[in-house]
Amino acid sequence: MARKRGRGMAACWYGIARTATVDRAAAWAEIDDGGSAKIVTGVTEIGEGILTVLAQIAAHEIGVKPEHVVIGDNDTARAPEAAHAGASRQTYMIGNVVALASREAKKRLVDVMADMWDVEADSIRTGNGEIWAENTNHRITMGEAVACAKNRGVVPIGSATFGTDTTGIKDGKGGDGSGRPWQAYVFGCQVAEVEVDTVTGEVQVLAVWAAHDVGRAVNPQGVEGQIEGGIVQAIGQGLMEDYQLKDGHTSTSGFAKYILPTSLDVPRVNSIIIEDPDPIGPLGVKGIGEPAMVPTIPAVMNAIYDAVGVRVFDLPATPEKILMAMREKARRETMASQAAE
Amino acid sequence: MVDIRLNATINGRKVSRDAKPHLRLLDFLRDDLNLTGNKEGCGAGECGTCSVFVDGVLMKSCLMPVAKAQGATVDTIESLAKSGELSVLQKAFHKAGASQCGYCIPGMVMAATAALRANPFADREEIKERLGGNICRCTGYQKIFDAVELARDVQNGRVPATALLETDTADGDVIGKSVRRIDAPSKVSGRLKYAGDMIMPGMLHVQVLRSPHAHARIVSIDTSAALAMDGVESVITAADVPGKDGFGVFVHDQPIMARDKVRYVGEAIAAVAAEDALTAKRAVAAIKVVYEQLAPVFDPDAAMRPGAPVVHDYAPDNITKHIPIRVGDVEAGFAASDLVIEESYSTQAIEHAYLEPEAGLAYVDHDDVVTVVSPSQNITHHRHMLARIIDRPISKVRFIMSPVGGGFGGKEDMIYQGMLALLAMKTMRPVRLVYTREESIISTAKRHPSRTTLRMGLMRDGRIRALAMRMVCDGGAYGLSTEGVMRKAAILAAGPYAIPNVQIDTFGIYTNNTPSGAFRSFGALQTQFATESQLDIAAERLGLDPFEIRRINAMRDGDMTHTKQKLGSVSLMRALDAAEQASGWESGAPAVRGPVRGDLGHDDVRPSVTLGTRFASSGAQEAAE
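^ inputs. structure came back:
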């Protein structure tokens, strides 16, 4: 058989939000005329789906539909600071702070309605664009409620800030690295199934099963998208991508030489979302952007070993390296059997 | 050269206008007609994001001279959603979550449209083949295949069109539902404006002069010939920086243009703002720089040796950052171990390869606020740094984050925004810079290449008694995120395992290579690759299943991390169980079981690929049904 299959696995852990420093984010929320929600915070989509996640969170907290949430642009002169777009922190830091700001805006509106209907504030519910008092016939649209509030001189707004209880680590001279770098950790595990062509040395990753704790999945499809994308980037690094330099000059300055995974290189990814809620933030969410990428490469390398008995220690595992390792293995086995004779 | 008169039908309208003969069809569409839906990702026909239909045939418009479109019918992404109504395929992309950053998506939608036109019954494998010329860096393609299959089934009547509609949230429970992405309609239709799509009245175009040397002293820069050229408004160098020059995520060691010396090939030296990009390019070529070569250092281990060339005076040992982690006594732990395994690992530099090359606009507004619009992943920090560099109060500096066409950490560095701000201040006009793919690759950060030695001591029952790791990373010419990458790499190096004796040292080193910086998984990828590979080596030697050896060592609720932090709930065991069960894993020691294992080839495994075998046959088969 020219093609041999094998399986491997690997686990991972990761910290969510900025490392070994205090992280923070802020947001403003307003329940707007017509009963839509307006969220302003320092964030723009980098592709991860954060705008949709924030719309869902604001909708959930305020009680409107996600399509009735408007999110302002990220602009240092027009929006409160939410710090940077990275470190797997968007859902954790900004999602949590948008929830807090939305709750405050909703409380302003609920207080007005409780007064108007002469009911306890905690009997008031919102959802799906409506606001009502339990066990009564009071039920109006959010748009009508906003008009009521404004007639009483109240604009239903909220703001919030969310910070982490974290510290630096002792990494100076003689330090032991101790500290509290994150308040939320995630864990994951992936299994890879590969096929190695023993004639060409080419490796195909046919499937990956990826189980990751995300705390709470706001948008499962978005979580899967992060897992699938992370795995494919890792396969790029594991098998083909290589930024090469000679005397400081690159020979890989375009995509003809710098090889990226295409549609024919990718495995079937089977995602398993685990929800172990974060006990600190108001939503229980954590993050997934980066951890999804961590176990893939060792899982694939372990699978290659399982298939053909060679292990690649120096990435990427190109066909040339696989073939060389297989030849070296065959040579050593021949020598060993000759020595035994 | 004289202009050509181009007559063509573009998105159903007759177009007759003069065009510069050197233009590619892509330039003509984007710059002359302002049809910016189709993007430029590589300029070399390799990524597919510029794909359009020419006389109904899918073409990469970056490879086609505009004159070749004479008399042709050209359809761009804008033609698919006339009057805002998305096509079935675009709706399917929306529904399936097939767009992330969205930059490749216009080209991907064009290619998918072509695929279903060529074979309305194409199966998943044929769809993959037909999308093979289009690169996506975000999605891993899976949801794109899902979208094309969904569109195919709706078009063929196998699935009702209601399958394209929004997820129902009428029960009020919005969290936990796969609500459609709110940014997707603008991405699948090409309506979303990335920085490189934006124009402002009176805008100037910027080009950058870059270093051809890895390490050289700049003796002189003569910009007079460039400045004298018609259409050139301004030429800037480090000498024009009014404040304290220097940016970086941790150490502010990088000037916005090379100051006194260059430290890597591709480093910016000067920038030109001119009426058009071609004039700016010619002006860049007219700048004369005299260099004095310095001895370079390219290998991080060599750079750590005494007497090595020094890249930055402030770091005479070339060490950007060393991070130590210490728990217990590793030597005693190894002495008490039944098995000690030592191996070396290395990982290479890789490129973020976001499909959107760097681009940005800058202008000084009516309140004298210096404003930069760019796909920056960290406008908060960039504003701080830029204020110091241009010597203005923070309130007079404004950053706007434009939609990011892929970041992955690569757009956390303020690599070009300083030049843009300075040129806007000099000219008091809007300025725009759009990198070519080559510029993006040679001048921006890579993932840190690493060399790691890992010693692991284990007991016969599989418990890890001691772990010692030393990793040396090439940080390249500037600090960027190196310090943070070394820190995260070290903290997470030993994996989620309770180990009584741990010694980790990570070193980020200056060299004259392309700088390394932030990249998704930020150092943890390099260190955990070594640890997770070595655990399998250990499992084979000890006759343990790979899940089992990890369970034996797994951190549990309330355990201490290697930085001596007490954990709350630890979900590792749940993740191990879930992956093992979902994959139907057959347990056993990892001793080359591939030939005999019985868990291969389940339904949730894709077929293996042999190039070109699935094109016509499957289509013919379907059509015959």
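Chain A has two domains: 3-16+192-336, 25-160. The CA atoms of residues 23 and 74 of chain A lie 18 Å apart.
thumbs up if we can close this ticket
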